[in-house]
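Hi support team,

I'm filing this because I wasn't sure whether my run with adenosine monophosphate finished correctly. The job status page said complete, but I'd like someone to confirm that the output block is well-formed before I use it downstream. Pasting the exact inputs I used:
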Amino acid sequence: MATHEPIPPGATVGILGGGQLGRMIALAAARLGYRCHIFCPEADSPAAQVSAAMTVADYEDREALRRFAADVDVVTLEFENVPLVAVETLTATVPVRPGARALEVAQDRIVEKDFLRSIDVPTTDYRQAENANDVAAAALELGTPCVLKTTRFGYDGKGQVRIDDADAAEAAWAEMGGQIGIVEAFVDFDCEISVLVARGPDGQVVSYCPVENRHANHILDTTIAPANISDAVAVQAIDLATRTAEALDYVGLLAVEMFVTRDGAVLVNEIAPRPHNSGHWTIDACLTSQFEQAVRAACALPLGSADRVADAEMKNLLGDDAARWPELLADPGAHLHLYGKAEARPGRKMGHVTWLKGNPD
Ligand code: AMP
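And here is everything the job wrote out:
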């Protein structure tokens, strides 16, 4: 169903996925007067805790999907690995924003990189690998070090093995679990950045400033807004993200993760068709948060301004870090966000904290 008619406040926004991103989308939607209905397989999800309705069902449960579609006016998502069949089932009744094409591209690293190259968005060199011999050949062609990744369902560095020597290809293939893989040339980067863009059904695009992302153990640790990069690199990064959103005819909030190489080139690493951990700072430091933009785009409302009211630093609270809440609350400059997760497993994203760092330039 293609419509650019606004879906007015009071309507119901369906959200696929129940994690913290869904929770923050739901909070932003509630502020604009929408009800939210969460669809996810887990009971007691962070998103359902703050929403008007929930469906706990498998993403392939067509009957549950149809009932969900009947209750909502538009669907958005916080999780890109939703099976395409779910999106196709819902699209018969209700707009799904972002839609199947963006998910298809984001779900498979080979499809994603082929797509990016097809629109002249630079990426690192890569080869597909279906067995250990392919990995060895790719390592010889691309050189070492290189990185073997699963093409599907990898996140936060899971399903990734660094190869330092072509002789290690067999072991890397076994370690990665023998699934179809992608071998990527290793990028000797100066920094990792991301650009978030919002795009409405009418083609309006709004971009946030590029931010720098620092990882620890492959998980995002800190985001610094804005990234300390030259104006030329920033302009290029925003252009790449905007072109990617336009080429996908994207509707919603798109996150584009990039490497800035030591010689100032910008390479796209991956895209996420949803609000992103590196945009949490926008809640406290921008005129419109990334979550509100996702809601505005899905509901065909005018997008808000992405201007910063302050520079900012965001730090994730993983596992037991969240137990620091009394100390963080005592810090008058700390904006604390907790996700309502009962169990603090090591590495689990339990919350985040943002500090404002003075006025933007
Ligand atoms: P990804 O799951 O692709 O986001 O990768 C997780 C992290 O691994 C990235 O944020 C980088 O720090 C690192 N990484 C991934 N791919 C490469 C690469 N081709 N070269 C160097 N570092 C990489």
